[in-house]
């Protein structure tokens, strides 16, 4: 969860409890001493490597750490390389098709490469390209449904968000079959979007998933990296506070109706300046429409309710207090 919502602390604690702790690499330096206001890209590469180190210190030697790298970033290749150089175990990559991911990670064959998809078509495109160009099979797929997930959603149009064609119940079994038949390798499909408790998890396993990726529930933990005001916004959220917006990156996103979003929905654009040309496709950069999403997400991370863009999954309405990561993990895996 970017920007910096799942940083080294949250990832480290999830890994310490036996999960795969995932650090979002996007904008990670924003709250570190490495960033001086001018060196956005360089500082971020240091923050990724140091973040992996910090997460490992919390997790201990057997902890598994992943880094989420967004394909839509202008310096995507550097995010992947820095994560590999920092000794990450897994790279999870979406917000676009990670067609060249194996090239950027080629010197690190032990790093597992896991694309995020929302359809079998996308998975198939990635798998075919990887096989043809790099002789490499993905090490897993995260199937994320736009119906419930937070952040940028993996469809182009608003009306596709709730389309059954992108639901877990439709795509997970199809993807499991595709992997077994077409790739001939036992690689896990991981379900994401709207998973909250053990019942949801077992339902996903019943569809054929071998794992789940959970975002929203972990954002509001004591160990979560965001400011307390960010977490309070999650606690306060009711169903009609959750809205979809068209983001500057050209994708729908699920967010809280903060004052900033309220104004945006009414057509008032009040943006801080472009922070660093961070997205390959950005309507704010190219047409001065929308807003600088990096600045708005950093504001949310810092707990600036007035000016922040608070990404959330639809499960945000179930968040009613701050909890410990270990309590969530014990509830999910009592045995
Ligand atoms: C605050 C927030 C930020 C997110 N940022 C990212 C991101 O940077 N990259 C990404 O691939 N997914 C991102 N996501 C999606 C999550 O990784 C996750 O797949 C999704 O939210 C799962 O659904 P859930 O929140 O219902 O558990 C974000 C989600 C949230 C809530």
Care to describe what's here?
51% of the residues are buried. The radius of gyration is 18 Å and the shape is globular. The chain is of the alpha/beta class and 335 residues long. It has helices spanning 8-16, 40-59, 76-85, 101-104, 120-134, 168-183, 198-206, 216-219, 228-236, 259-265, 283-287, 293-301, 325-332, and strands at 20-24, 64-70, 90-94, 112-117, 141-144, 151-152, 189-192, 211-213, 242-246, 252-256. The chain has a seven-stranded parallel sheet with strand order 1-2-3-4-5-7-8. It has two domains: 8-226, Aldolase class I (TIM Barrel, Alpha-Beta Barrel), CATH 3.20.20.70; 229-315, no CATH class. The protein has 13 helices and ten strands. The structure holds flavin mononucleotide (FMN). Residues 1-2, 5, 24, 26, 68, 70, 94-95, 116, 144, 148-151, 192-195, 213-216, 219, 311-313, 315 line the site of flavin mononucleotide.
């Amino acid at each position: 969860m970017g920007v910096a919502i799942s940083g080294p602390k949250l990832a480290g604690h999830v890994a310490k409890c036996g999960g795969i702790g995932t650090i979002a690499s996007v904008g990670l330096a924003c709250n570190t001493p490495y960033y001086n206001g001018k060196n956005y890209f360089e500082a971020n590469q240091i923050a990724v490597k140091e973040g992996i180190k910090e997460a490992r210190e919390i997790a201990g030697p057997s902890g598994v750490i992943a880094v989420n790298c967004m394909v839509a970033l202008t310096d995507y290749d550097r995010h992947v390389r820095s994560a590999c150089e920092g000794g990450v175990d897994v790279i999870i990559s979406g917000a676009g098709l990670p067609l060249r991911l194996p090239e950027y990670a080629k010197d690190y064959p032990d790093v597992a490469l896991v694309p995020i998809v929302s359809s079998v078509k996308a998975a198939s495109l990635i798998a075919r390209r990887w096989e043809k160009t790099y002789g490499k099979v993905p090490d897993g797929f995260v199937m994320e449904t736009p119906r419930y997930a937070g952040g940028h959603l993996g469809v182009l149009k608003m009306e596709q968000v709730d389309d059954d064609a992108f639901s877990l119940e439709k795509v997970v079994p199809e993807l499991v079959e595709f992997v077994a038949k077409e790739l001939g390798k036992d690689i896990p499909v991981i379900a994401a979007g709207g998973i909250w408790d053990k019942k949801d998890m077992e339902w996903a396993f019943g569809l054929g998933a071998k794992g789940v990726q959970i975002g929203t529930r972990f954002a509001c933990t004591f160990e979560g990296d965001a400011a307390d005001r960010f977490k309070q916004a999650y606690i306060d959220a009711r169903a009609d506070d959750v809205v979809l917006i068209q983001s500057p990156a050209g994708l729908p996103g699920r967010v809280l109706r903060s004052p900033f979003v309220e104004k945006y929905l009414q057509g008032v654009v009040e943006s801080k300046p472009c922070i660093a040309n961070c997205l390959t496709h950005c309507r704010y950069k190219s047409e001065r429409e929308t807003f600088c999403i990096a600045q708005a997400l950093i504001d949310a991370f810092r707990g600036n309710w007035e000016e922040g863009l608070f990404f959330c999954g639809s499960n945000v309405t179930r968040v009613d207090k701050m909890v410990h990561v270990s309590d969530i993990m014990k509830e999910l895996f009592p045995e």
